[in-house]
From TrEMBL:
Origin species: Candidatus Alectryocaccomicrobium excrementavium
Entries under InterPro entries matching the protein: 4Fe4S_Fe-S-bd, 4Fe4S_Fe_S_CS
Keywords: Iron, Iron-sulfur, Metal-binding
Record lineage: Bacteria, Bacillati, Bacillota, Clostridia, Candidatus Alectryocaccomicrobium
Protein name: 4Fe-4S ferredoxin-type domain-containing protein
Domain 4Fe-4S ferredoxin-type, first and last residues per copy: 172-201
Molecular function GO terms recorded: iron-sulfur cluster binding; metal ion binding
Statement: the UniProt record of this protein carries the keyword Membrane: no
Length: 286
C-alpha cells in the first residue's frame, strides 16, 4: 500500500510529533559508512527524521540557576527515551501496517561508535551510529549552527530527534536555505570555559555549507552552567541545549526573529550567571 508524505505528516501531527522531514537515499552519497544510516538498512530508500520540541519552560531552571533536574528529565531522559521514542515507534507501526519496512534509530549524539568487528567483508564495524546533525539537515528541518548544535527553523536548538529508515520511497524535502544561524558569536562569547573556538570548519550537506566551530568537549563535560552529561557514554558529547551557549543561542534566535516558535515575553529577564571550571562565579559576556 502506497503512503504519501502528507498522510505520514498528518498522522505524525495527530500523535504529537512536532518535526518530521524526509531525505531520499541520494542525499547520503559519500557519507562515511560508519555514520551512514543506509549501512543499517542497505535496501532502504528514505531516511525520515522526526522529533519533539524541548519546551522553553524546561530551560527556566538552568537560566535562573535554581533547578537543573527538570531539564534532565523533561529535556533529555523522559523526552527522548519516552515521548519521542513512542512517537517514533508509532510512526514505524504506521509504515509497517502498510507493508513497508521501517527501522527505528535512537539518537546517540557523539557516542563512541565502531567497537565491534565487521560481520562480513566490506561491512562497517558495529555499532553504526548515524550522524543525526547531517540527517536532520538533509531532511530539510534546519541547519547546524556555528556552535555545533542542530538548529531547526521552528525551535532553534530546542528539540530531540530520532530517525526512521524505510524502504518506502519518498521525495526529499527542500533544504533550509534561509538564515537561522547568523554567526552572531553569542555562544562563543558566552561560554565561561572558552570551549567554543573562533576557528571553524565547513560542514557540507548536499551543497549547503555551514561554518561550524571547533568545540573542546573535554571542557564541556566539566561545564556547570547547564550542560548535562551524555546519557549513553561518558565519552560522548554532552547535552548543551540548557548550557549557557545553548540558552544564548536560543535567546538570540528568538529576538532576531530567525525561528518560528517565539513568545510574548523575553526569556532572559535579569543578568545571567556563570561558573568557571573550578566552580567559581565569573562575569559572563553577554
Amino acid at each position: 500500500m502506497q503512503i504519501t508524505k502528507q498522510e505520514l505528516r498528518d498522522f505524525a501531527a495527530q500523535i504529537g510529533v512536532d518535526l518530521i522531514g524526509f531525505a531520499a537515499r541520494d542525499r547520503f552519497e559519500g557519507v562515511p559508512a560508519e555514520v551512514n544510516p543506509f549501512s543499517i538498512a542497505p535496501e532502504a530508500k528514505t531516511v525520515i527524521v522526526m522529533g519533539k520540541r524541548i519546551t522553553r519552560g524546561t530551560l527556566r531552571g538552568p537560566e535562573e540557576g535554581t533547578n537543573f533536574g527538570d531539564y534532565n528529565l523533561f529535556g533529555i531522559n523522559w523526552l527522548d527515551m519516552d515521548y519521542v521514542a513512542e512517537g517514533c515507534y508509532n510512526l514505524v507501526r504506521y509504515i509497517e501496517d502498510r507493508g513497508w519496512e521501517a527501522v527505528p534509530v535512537f539518537s546517540n549524539p557523539s557516542a563512541v561508535a565502531g567497537y565491534g568487528v565487521p560481520v562480513r567483508d566490506g561491512a562497517p564495524v558495529p555499532d553504526v551510529i548515524p550522524d543525526f546533525n547531517y540527517a536532520a539537515v538533509a531532511c530539510g528541518l534546519g541547519v547546524v549552527g556555528v556552535n555545533g548544535l542542530f538548529l531547526s527553523k521552528k525551535y532553534g536548538p530546542r528539540q530531540k530527534l530520532q530517525m526512521i529508515i524505510t524502504d518506502a520511497e519518498f521525495e526529499s524535502d527542500p533544504l533550509v536555505t534561509q538564515t537561522i544561524c547568523d554567526q552572531c558569536g553569542s555562544c562563543q562569547r558566552g561560554c565561561p570555559l572558552g570551549a567554543i573556538s573562533q576557528e571553524t570548519t565547513i560542514m557540507d550537506v548536499c551543497g549547503l555549507k555551514m561554518p561550524v566551530a571547533k568545540v573542546d568537549y573535554s571542557l564541556c563535560r566539566m561545564c556547570k552552567n547547564g550542560a548535562m552529561g551524555n546519557r549513553v557514554s561518558d565519552r560522548g558529547e554532552p547535552d548543551r541545549c540548557a548550557a549557557l551557549c545553548g540558552r544564548n543561542c536560543m535567546i538570540h534566535l528568538e529576538e532576531a526573529g530567525l525561528i518560528e516558535n517565539t513568545f510574548e515575553n523575553h526569556f532572559r529577564r535579569r543578568k545571567t550567571w556563570a561558573i568557571d571550571v573550578k566552580g567559581k562565579n565569573v562575569e559572563p559576556q553577554e
